[in-house]
Amino acid sequence: MIKRELYMKQIRPFIGKDVVKILTGIRRSGKSVILDLLCKEINCPKRSIFINFESKKNDKYKDPDTLYKFVTAEVGKCKEKFYLFFDEIQELPNWEGVINSFRIDFDADIYITGSNAKLLSGELSTFIAGRYVQFTIYPFSFAEFKLINKKHSFFDYLEIGGMPFLTNIIDDKKSIQQYLDDVYGSIILKDVVKRNNIRDVDLLDRIVTYVLANIGQTFSANSIAKYFKNEKRKVSTDTVLNYIRACEDAHLFYRLQRQEIKGKKILTVNEKLYVVDHGMREAIYGKNNQDIEKVLENIVCLELQRWGYKLTVGTVDDAKEIDFVAVKNSETIYFQVCYLLEQETTREREFGNLEKINDNYPKYVLSMDKINMSRNGIKHLNIEDFLLNFS
């Protein structure tokens, strides 16, 4: 087990503070491990309660009144701050009111995890607006992958992705496939179908597969609906949008809007979708090696989000595109991502688009090339080096 310092450093400043700490992210991304690491770091076993609501032994606490009575009895024995850790909180009915009561009634430091973005932001905010902080936990980055799997290469990471459990079966491709299939099935069933009362699961699977095939490509619900019409499957644009949003809420996909770089205007058409873990794409759809440029772009997208950047897709002179406009602490960085720069046309496209931006913010081209091709103030980095050293 690694300590995942990227996240621990983000959470530590809030330990002991009067805000509910929320860890959210796709199922099996490591939220429970980080919750356990926090519990051990705080190290107050006599003043802590840790409940995993997915465990059968804790079924009795899924009744809000029973949970409240139990916590009240334990906290009542202590005159110092108490620490409450609740894993997969969405399994507790009406949990929002209970958590809010703990915050109001006790001197308690509260940490919760959940697998649905909408559950933990929209609904919770009605109870404790301004009284919570949220941290998104992603699958392993390449740096974390290498920390555990020193003998394995970037191409191994390209194929299997970063779901933490895979480090236990990393040399067993059949087991990796089975595990990722099962995780995907759990996400679809519990966090998408069940929560959103989706009846046409076959259509949902087809839409997910379409998005996986087209990660990093501009899309519209209308274009997807037309695609299915050509496949003799009638579906409304509203249904497509609702299904995709349900997958976004489950952290399966992340949507990036487009932005005019000169006018800073956010565009509401031709957005892009990226998958939370490219290894899951390989397991469900395949073709990661064939679509290596798409996968590299997906990896960079998730990495920048891990580092706390807010991302949009940039447009210059209408037709020219910048893969990522990354903003953090009021600073902007531009990124272009490609597989190789060996063709002159590729170099002109990747560097040329960035050269059209008339500001002094840093600009990078990322590729698998080992030779430095930086030019005109635009830095070129090898993607592996970027993932291991940039932050």
In words, what does this structure look like?
43% of the residues lie in helices and 20% in strands. The protein contains 15 helices and 13 strands. An 8-stranded mixed β-sheet has the order 6-8-7-9-10-11-12-13, with helices on both faces. A 5-stranded parallel β-sheet has the order 2-3-4-1-5, sandwiched between helices. The radius of gyration is 22 Å and the shape is globular. The two termini are 22 Å apart. The mean pLDDT is 93.
Summarize the structure.
Helix content is 43%, strand content 20%. With 391 residues, the protein is of the alpha/beta class.
Q: What descriptive keywords fit this protein?
A:
391 residues, alpha/beta, eight-stranded mixed β-sheet, five-stranded parallel β-sheet
